[in-house]
Amino acid sequence: MIEFTTEQKMLRETVRNFAEKEVAPLAYEIDHTERFPTESFKRLAEMGLLGITVPVEYGGAGAGYTEMCIVGEELGVVCCSTSAVWGTHSDLCIDNIRRNANEAQKKKYLPPLCDGSRIGGLAMTEPSAGSDVMSMKLRAERRNDDYILNGSKIFISNGPVGDVFVIYAKTAPEKGAHGVSAFIVEKDFSGFQRGKKFEKMGWRGSPTGELIFEDCRVPAENLFGGENRGAMVLMSGLNTERVLLGALSLGISRGAYECALKYAKERIQFGKPIASFQLIQAKLADMAMEIELSHLITYKGAVMADRGLHREMNLVAAYAKLYCSEVAMRVTTEAVQILGGYGYMKEFPVERMMRDAKLQTIGGGTSEIQRLIIAREILQ
Ligand SMILES: Cc1cc2nc3c(=O)[nH]c(=O)nc-3n(C[C@H](O)[C@H](O)[C@H](O)COP(=O)(O)OP(=O)(O)OC[C@H]3O[C@@H](n4cnc5c(N)ncnc54)[C@H](O)[C@@H]3O)c2cc1C
Known about the structure:
Number of strands: 10
CATH architecture of the largest domain: Up-down Bundle
Structural class: alpha+beta
Strand order of the largest sheet: 1-4-5-8
Number of helices: 10
Largest sheet: 4 strands, mixed
Bound molecules: flavin-adenine dinucleotide
CATH class of the largest domain: Mainly Alpha
Number of domains: 3
Distance between the termini: 30 Å
């Protein structure tokens, strides 16, 4: 077990109480109606949890990745969609700007993102560039004091509701990965449009959409990280994103396990609680063990990130992303099994958790890609 500080334990307690009292009651409805959890987002802003890794002078909490994972995990226990909305905003958008933007950009964009008056997202994926993200086609051409963007992005979390996006585009297509640049794009920039909103299996309260750029005019001052240095910006966030996704998966696993454990103690069949049957006990034992291991690998990654070991943590970040997501899939599937027919009904949250868990093996780098990274690291 990772030794948390007193402040980290207090943070966990605070977020857990908030999640149980205010987020859990909305979880069914936002999943059912596929709506953005506006109330929870506002409350997370009031609690100072949006800019968790941002220094206080820009309106953030001045905390680290361990705290970020604690928040992501606790929200994930009751509602993965809310955790995804928060993680997209706080990690993919805000933390990226904190790490890579210049002083003027940080002063302009971080305070309204941290106080929740603006919603953030990040767009890498395109219709023909998913795992092979560097094959992206979105084009950015310099014209006087602007860059003109043409192309599109798909599957963008917070896309249908976001105000500010970190966007990757090709400024020098002939240079491949060395011709990518990063931009901060506002929804009101001319030529920016939202495309379709996708209907999904899980993560349904976390809106996913298409972004379209038609001669979209982005001021040159919104380029960040340097022209043709976007791949470095992109890579700088992948490990922490993977660890945070590990925390979300851990949260889902815990939520499903807690529900299955309670049910197994209460459900009577053949005159006994089903928890007394060894086949059910074996499932619960595997779940408990895999949750403990998910916790260890997630927080090992978070602690490495807090120690600034970003380059050294490729392996651990891939382990956390891969292991915790596959555990979440196994644990939620077994939780549905333990609840039997009720597990398949929407009266209990485990069917939603199983649908949410599936995305964890796809988004932020698929399980296959994580295995390739692990193999590359151990073979080099
Ligand atoms: C709900 C949701 C939210 C998302 N949010 C965002 C977001 O906010 N921003 C963003 O930029 N993107 C986002 N994505 C995109 C996500 O990161 C991609 O879906 C993911 O990286 C996989 O890309 P793909 O879907 O194009 O699949 P593909 O890359 O086409 O992969 C298809 C299959 O082929 C496998 N595969 C691909 N290459 C290899 C290989 N070399 N070896 C073996 N197998 C391989 C994959 O593992 C997968 O099983 C989101 C996706 C979803 C579904």
